[in-house]
Structure formats: C-alpha cells, structure tokens
TrEMBL record:
PANTHER family: OBSCURIN-LIKE PROTEIN 1 ISOFORM X1, SI:DKEY-31G6.6. InterPro entries: FN3_dom (IPR003961), FN3_sf (IPR036116), Ig-like_dom (IPR007110), Ig-like_dom_sf (IPR036179), Ig-like_fold (IPR013783), Ig_I-set (IPR013098), Ig_sub (IPR003599), Ig_sub2 (IPR003598). One of its GO terms (cellular component) is cytoplasm. Keywords: Cytoplasm, Disulfide bond, Immunoglobulin domain, Phosphoprotein, Repeat. Residues 311-362, 368-456, 464-546 form the Ig-like domain. It comes from Nothobranchius furzeri (Turquoise killifish). This is Obscurin like cytoskeletal adaptor 1a. The keyword Signal does not apply. Residues 115-211 form the Fibronectin type-III domain. It comes from the Eukaryota. SUPFAM superfamilies: Fibronectin type III, Immunoglobulin.
Length: 578
C-alpha cells in the first residue's frame, strides 16, 4: 500500500470547491453498518478519464477479495465485504487535486454468541476432573459474554450450573462441589445479553464423591440444674462419630443417651449438674469436628405446683382472652395458649403471669420470603446525561415487602434530589437531576434477595452544538475549542482518524469544562478533519489552511448539519466574512 498523498503545493492559495470542482457527488460524512454487512461508498466525478485513488486511514486501497474497487464512467465505487469491527476508520477518495472523506463505523451485531470449541476432560486425578475448552475463533469482541459450565448426574434430566467466567477457558470440578456421590456429565455454553449459544457436551463421565459437611451445627445451650440437655448434629453423609465432654469420650448409658440415625447424631445428658456448667461438648467424625458450650443455672421454682393457681396471659402488655383461633388451656400444673393459625400479626411478647411471678416468651412469625420479578436487561444498566432524570425500578412478590436501596454498598435515604417510592409491588428509586457522583452500582435488597443496577453518567459536548468548517492562512494560530458538560470529563483529539498528541507546534489544553487544541503556527499540512471525542459524544472541525494571497479577511466558519440514517444531523450555512 502507498501512503496517502498530500495535495500538491504551488505556493498559491488552495481554492475551495466551486461549480468546476472535479468531484460532483461527494462521500457522506459518516456511514454506520453492522458487523458482517457490506459497506459501500460511491462518488461521481466531472470527467470519466480522471486518475482516482481510494484510501483508508491514509493508506491506499488495492482490490482484494474483501475490497472491491469499480469504475463506471464518471462513477467510482468502493465496497468492503463482510466488515468487522476493526474495519472502522476514515475512507478518502482522491481525484486530481480534490478529495472527499467519510468516517466508517462498524457496530457489533446483536446476536447470540457462538458455542465454544475443543472441549476436553482430564479425569486422571483423584475425585476430580479438569475441563477445558476454546472460544470460537470468530466470536464477537464488542459484546460482553460469559462461559457457563453445567453438570448433571447420569440418569437425571436436569442440568445444574456449577461455574461461570468471562475469560477462563478451564475449570477443575472436585467431589466437594457435588451434592451426592454419582457419575456426572458436563457441558459448556456461552451467554451474552442477546441470548445463549448451543451447548457442547464433554465426551467422558467422571465419578465424584462429596466430602462430609455439617448441615446442621451444634448450638450452645443453656438449661437449669436437674433438667435434660438435648444436642444434635446433622452431616451431609452417613458416618460414625464420637461425643466428648471436656475431652472425655462419652459412652451410651447412665446419664448419657447417644443415638445415630443415618446422617443425624444426637446426645442427651440427663439431669444436668452444676459441675457441667461451662463444659465443652464436642462431636468428631471423619473430617468433621464441631463444639458447643453448656451452661447450667441453679434450679428455680417458677410456679407453685398447685393446679388451682390463677394465671393471666398477656400479649405486649394487654390481657388475652380465648377467641376463635386462640385457645387458653389448663391441665394440672401446666398452663398454655395455642394459636391455631399463626400469621405476622401474632408476633410479640407473651407473658404468663401469676400474683407473685411471671415468665415471658418472644414470638416472631415471619412472612414468606420476598422474591424479585425479572427486569429487562436494558433497565438494569442505565446511561444518562447530566441533569437528566434516572429511574430504577423493580417488582417484588408482596405489596407489604420492605426494601432497602444501596449505592456502592452504602444505604440510600430520600433527599431533595432522590425519591424512594413504593406502589403496590413496584419499588422505585428516582434521581431527579443526575450528577457525576450519581454514577455507580445500585442495589435493591429485600431480606436475603436483591437486584443489582448500574448507572453511567455520560460526558456531553455543550458547545459547539454543530460541526464546524474553518478557513485560515499560513502561519496563523488556530484554536479548536469544545465545552463539556462537566469539568472532569476526558476527551481525545483526532486528525483524519489518527489521534493527536502534543508537539512543539500543537498544544492540548484543559481549563474547567473547556478543551482546546491550538496550532501555534499553521501550515497547509495542518488542513484536515479534526474530531473532539468523549465517551458519549463527538464534534467535527473541518480545517482548511491556505497561503495568504492578499490582505487577510479573517477566518470564515460554516455550520454543517448532516443527515444520515433518518436522524437529522446538520445543514450547511455560511457566515459572511468579517
């Protein structure tokens, strides 16, 4: 390929295109296509015998199987076949001393990912397997995707997710990761926000045995002297175990009753003694150990053994009476109340009271767990400009569910700018006027369940609102300036698609919200298309530098509105010279 040729310099002023311009129909300023589509450009020149050249990012294009160059009389055509994301850049057509340029932007295709390849399973290791795979070679690089590894026991129809990763292409599965002993199969797929790829099943089967785990731990207990002490532990697999009291192994019989039923082990210490106070009770099995502390209080007579004693039942300080659904019972020395169908309203402090003593019971009746309804992906990831409102919402399973909102792990309270709403099952957070500090990770939490949101505040270019065309003379100082929506915004400057850096002749300045590119002493080589670009916006400057033929008439500017793909861009209007 040849380097892009500069327009010849004859030390005279470069004339702007007029009615005698050699290029009759120019390229559009910007062309946007999806990955995998064809990008076509065409121009029309004044004469059909002119020498013409096509360039991309300053390099001359030659015809290949993916680059088609055709000429039909005065019409010249360039087609990029099956474009990819890296084909984005600046396309330039040159005819004689005239040229026209267009910016090609290739967008990611909205399609599910391609399934991974080359799956392998290494089972030459004890009670584990190493699974490896390779990403599809033509997978999209513009859309975030993750690998999902699933397992199922041979004979079962249900697949269970066991591993996810964005970048890892291998995973080691051990026996401790499966719920029960058995033969297991594995498969892998890829997921992005547009869907899921097909599944690729690994060719072998591996036998895995889970290690023992404690499903229900020992609990510290407190009892009165003379009462029985009950302790129990549940394991993930049946196995033998031993009980110890202060390092002394216990045997079944006498004061100690030891039972073992499959995965459950229990110990009863009959008639606890004062000497048992603060004793450590330990259970040990193969690979499992757990302990609890026993506290023994002196015996206290709470109630007189007379069956005719009068007692009262109170809830939260108010006396209870027998009603439908609430029974008050008395049998010998025993007194009790029975709530036939408990709900959350029955939570509270219950008191059994005699003339000389009382005992309290704390009752907490929990409602069903709160679940979140699925929310569209685009509602979970919000992008907004400064000063615009941002609304985050979700639906819970109950109208009376309590939720708490967090930002980056810190609780959120209502302010003049933030409103928290609850309407039926909808829970909503409204930021009335977004600021830079509002960007971050938001969480709506209800009990043990939560929903995550992300908010991004874009940096926008406030001025100029339109693209700018500028003419100037050698060696004038040139200033290209943008005003951003916030002072901390970052920009990059480009000239003809190449990033611009500071030199002895070029300064890149940042003052508050203003970003400026200054050419201290301009030359014809400084002519071209300049772009100031943020993470959410851009503006174009078309700069034409010529030799001064007579008395300077100042700098002329043009505002260009362009139209492309149905969206109104900009329309050309010239200002009179100064």
């Amino acid at each position: 390929m040849h380097k892009f040729p500069e327009v010849e310099q004859n030390r005279g002023r470069l004339k702007r295109p007029t009615s005698s311009c050699t290029i009759v129909r120019k390229l559009p300023r910007k062309l946007e296509v999806l990955e995998g589509e064809n990008a076509a450009f065409y121009v029309e020149v004044e004469n059909d015998d002119m020498e013409v050249h096509w360039f991309k990012d300053g390099l001359q294009l030659l015809e290949t199987h993916q680059t088609i160059l055709k000429s039909f009389g005065k019409t010249h055509i360039l087609v990029f076949v099956n474009v990819a994301y890296h084909d984005s850049g600046v396309v330039t057509f040159v005819a004689g001393r005239s040229k026209t340029s267009s910016r090609l932007k290739v967008k990611g295709k909205h399609c599910p990912p391609i399934c991974p390849l080359g799956v392998k399973m290494d089972v030459d290791r004890p009670n584990s397997a190493l699974l490896t795979w390779v990403p599809a070679p033509n997978s999209q690089t513009t859309t975030r995707s993750i690998f999902v590894l699933e397992r199922k026991e041979v004979g079962s129809q249900e697949w269970q997710k066991c591993f996810t990763s964005e970048t890892a292409t291998s995973a080691e599965v051990t026996g401790d990761s499966v719920p029960c002993e058995g033969n297991y199969r594995f498969r892998v797929s890829s997921i992005n926000k547009y869907g899921r790829s097909g599944h690729v099943e690994f060719p072998k089967v591996v036998h895995l045995v889970p290690g023992p785990k404690i499903l229900c731990r020992l609990q510290d207990c407190e009892t009165f002297e003379g009462e029985d002490v009950h302790l129990s532990i549940e394991l993930s697999a049946p196995m033998l175990g031993n009980w110890f009291l202060n390092s002394l192994q216990l045997q079944h019989g006498g004061r100690y009753s030891i039972q073992h039923n499959k995965t459950k082990h229990s110990l009863v210490i009959h008639e606890a003694q004062k000497a048992d106070d603060t004793a450590e009770i330990t259970f040990i099995a193969n690979g499992v150990r757990d302990s609890a502390v026993l506290k023994v209080k002196p015996a206290v007579v709470k109630f007189t053994p007379l069956s005719e004693s009068d007692i009262s039942w109170l809830k939260d300080g108010k006396e209870l009476q027998a009603t439908e659904g609430l029974n008050i019972q008395s049998e010998g020395n025993m007194r009790r109340i029975v709530i036939l169908s408990a709900d959350e309203s029955h939570s509270g402090v219950y008191t059994c009271e005699t003339s000389e003593d009382s005992i309290k019971f704390n009752v907490d009746v929990a409602g069903p767990p709160v679940e979140f309804s699925p929310v569209p992906e685009e509602e979970l990831h919000k992008s907004s400009m400064e000063l615009d409102p941002v609304v985050l919402f979700c639906h819970v399973s109950r109208d009376d569910a309590e939720v708490v909102w967090y930002k980056d792990g810190c609780g959120i309270q209502p302010t003049d700018n933030i409103t928290l709403q609850a309407e039926g099952t909808m829970r909503r957070l409204i930021i009335r006027s977004a600021e830079t500090a509002d960007a971050g990770s938001y969480t709506c939490q209800a009990g043990n369940n939560s929903m995550e949101f992300t908010v991004n505040i874009k940096v926008m270019i406030v001025e100029p609102k339109n693209d700018v065309v500028m003419e100037s003379f050698i060696p004038d100082e040139i200033n290209l300036q943008c005003e951003l929506s916030r002072s901390s915004g970052k920009v990059q400057w480009f000239k003809n698609g190449q990033q611009v850096y500071e030199t002895d002749n070029i300064q890149l300045l940042s003052e508050g919200p203003y970003r400026k590119l200054t050419i201290l002493s301009s030359s014809e080589e400084d002519s071209g298309e300049y772009v100031c670009e943020t993470n959410g916006d851009s503006v174009f400057f078309q700069l034409i530098i010529t030799e001064q033929m007579g008395k300077p008439s100042g700098i002329r500017m043009a505002i260009v509105l362009r139209e492309m793909k149905g969206s109104v861009r900009r329309k050309k209007v010239l200002f009179a010279p100064w």
